[in-house]
C-alpha cells in the first residue's frame, strides 16, 4: 500500500466516518469518495501525511464541521471538491496558499463570513464555485483579476455591495458569471461586455438598478442572460436594448422578469436569435401591443409576458410557434376573441390568458391541444357555453374558467378528464344539475362551482373524490341534503355550501368535525349541532308529514273501493230486472276481518300475491275464509318513519277505520307489523 497513488470509491454507498487508512499514505495523489453516505468531521491530522495529493473529492456526502487547517499545506492540490456536504466555518485566508489549484468546489454547504481576498492569489484558478452557502460581504475585486478563470459561481449567498467597474476587463477566458440570489446593488458594469467568451450571465434576484447595458449585445457567444427580479429600468419609450440583443445569434434564454422596464416592445423583436427557446418579460410594466413579428421566433419553448399592461389583441401569428410549450399572457389588457390559431400549438402544455378583457366564446378547437396540462382563462368576458370538446382534454391537470359569463349546463363529459386536479368554474352563469360524473375525478384536489345558478342536489358520488381538499359550492340554488358520503373525504380541509337551499342534518363525522358555521350559512332548512348556528334536528319525521304522502294514496284506494261497490250494485240491479226479483236486502254485510285472516289470505304477503307496487306500498290479491276475493293494500308507513317515532303514531289510522285489526285491540298485543296500514277493496 506504500506505493498506492489513487483511491477511487465514488458512488458506492459507503457510510460511517472516514477510514484512518487514508491518513498515512504519502504516495497518494488522488482520493475520490464522492457520492457516498460518509459522515462526521474530517480529522484534523488528515492532510499532514498527504504531501503529494493532487485530486481530492468528497462531494455529495454528509461530512460536517470545519475544514482541517492542514488542507492548506497540500501545495500540490489541483482539484478540490467539497460541495454538497454540511461543512461550516469560514474560508481561511490560507486558502490562497493553494497556488496550484485549478478547480475549487465549495458549493452547497454552510460556510459563512467573507470571501478572503487571498483567493486572488490562485493565479491558475479556472473554476471557483461557492454557490448556496452563507458567504457575506463584497466580492473581492481580486477575483476579477484572475485571467485564467472560466467559471465564477456564487449564487445563493448573502453577498452585497457593488460589482467592480472593471469586472470584465481582465477576464478573457470567463465563460460563466453566476451571481444570482444575493444582495448585490448598483449598476451592471458596462465592462462586463469585454469578457467576450461569456456564454452565461445570471445576475437575477439582486437589487441592481439602472438600465441594461446595450453593449451586452456585443457578446456574440452569449446563450443565457438572466437579469430577472432586480430594479432595472429603461430610459427610452421603447425597449431598445432588445434590438441590440439581435447580435447574440446563439442566445437561447432571455429572462428579464420583474423589473421596471416600462416601455414598448420593438416591432423587430422577431429578429432575435433563431435559437431562442425562452423569452420571459413578465412583471416589467410593458405597454402597447404584442408585435406580430413574435411569430418569427419559431424555436420558442416558453413565452411569458404576464402581468404587464399590454393591450390590443392576441396576434394570430402566435400559431406559428409549433414547439411552444408554455404561453403566458395573463394579467394584461388584451381584448378581442381567443384566436383559433392557438389550436395549432400542439406541443403546448400550459396556456395562461387569465385576467384580461378577452371576449367571445372558448374556441371549439382547443381539444386539438392534446399536450395541454394547464388552462387558465379566468377573469375575462367570455360568453356562451363551455364547448363539449374542452372535456376531451383528458390529460388536463388544472382548469380555471372562473369569473366569466359562461352559461348553460356542465356536461356529463366532464368525467373524461380523469387526471384533473384543480377545477374552478366559479362566478359564471352555469345552469342545471351538478354532473354526477365529477365523482369520477379521483385526483381532484380543488373544486369550485360557487356563484352560479346550479340546482338539484349535491351528488352522492362526491364521496368518491378521495383526494379532495377544497370544495366550494356556495351561492347556488342547490337543494336536498348534504350527502353523508362526504364524511369519508379524509383530506377535505375547506368546505363552503353557504347560500343555497339545502336541508336536513349536517353530517357530523370525518372532516365535518373541523368545519365552522361559515361553511353552512343561509341554508334555512339545515339542522345540526349548535356550534354550526343552525336549528337542532328533530328525532324523526312528524306524523303530519307522513300523512302528506299516505292520505292521497289511501284516497285513491277508497275511490277504487267505492267504484267497485257501485259496480256490484249495478250488476245486482240488472240481475234483479232480468229475474223479476224485487228483494231489496242489503248488498253487503259488514264484518270484522282479523289480521290473521288477511295474513292467511295473502299467504303471508308473499310476492306471488302482489298485483302491483307503488312508492309507499303494495297491492295484494287475497281470498278470505268465506271465499270473498279482494284487493289488500299495505302502506309501508315505516319507510317514512325514523326509529325515534313511536308505534302509537303508526296505529292512528287503525283507530279511524283504515287498519284491519280491531280498534279495541290492545296496542301492546297488536301483531300488525310496524308501520303497516291495510285497506281492503272487495269485488
From TrEMBL:
This is Uncharacterized protein. It is found in: Membrane. It is a single-pass membrane protein. One of its GO terms (molecular function) is ATP binding. GO terms for cellular component: membrane. InterPro entries: Leu-rich_rpt (IPR001611), Leu-rich_rpt_typical-subtyp (IPR003591), Plant_receptor-like_S/T_kinase (IPR051809). Its main location: membrane. Keywords: ATP-binding, Leucine-rich repeat, Membrane, Nucleotide-binding, Repeat, Transmembrane, Transmembrane helix. PANTHER family: OS04G0122200 PROTEIN, PROTEIN KINASE DOMAIN-CONTAINING PROTEIN.
